Amino acid sequence: MDILTYISLFATALLFGGMVFFAAFMTPLIFAKLDGDVRGQFLRDVFPWYYLTVLCLGAIAALAVISWRPVDGAILAGVAGVAVVVRQVLLPIINRARDGRDSGDAEAAKRFSRLHRLSVWINLSQMLAVAIVLARFLQP
Question: What is the pTM of this model?
Fold first, then answer.
């Protein structure tokens, strides 16, 4: 194995592990231990950093693997690209909808629910894509 293989494998494993840890452990813990207002603000502050981490690790893994596994590189680049869109476009829209919901706007509450569900599906899709790339490292 050359250095690019190690870099790609390590970055992909960190990416997958971080995503699973955040979804399976941190988020439930945040909901169990923090009160509503604190929880909401904490998640609002954390998610941009989460998606920045997904972007950086995805980009590093993609750049390291693309020359010898172009499909895997494209998948990881796609994960990184989607992270940019979620971070820069979707999160601010979700936050505005949440603010509206919290001020009693029923339409905003519906919009928040739909957008939140969309963000969860996007994140699960990204995790699945990264898991597939990680599993493909086991193939010659």
Answer: 0.94
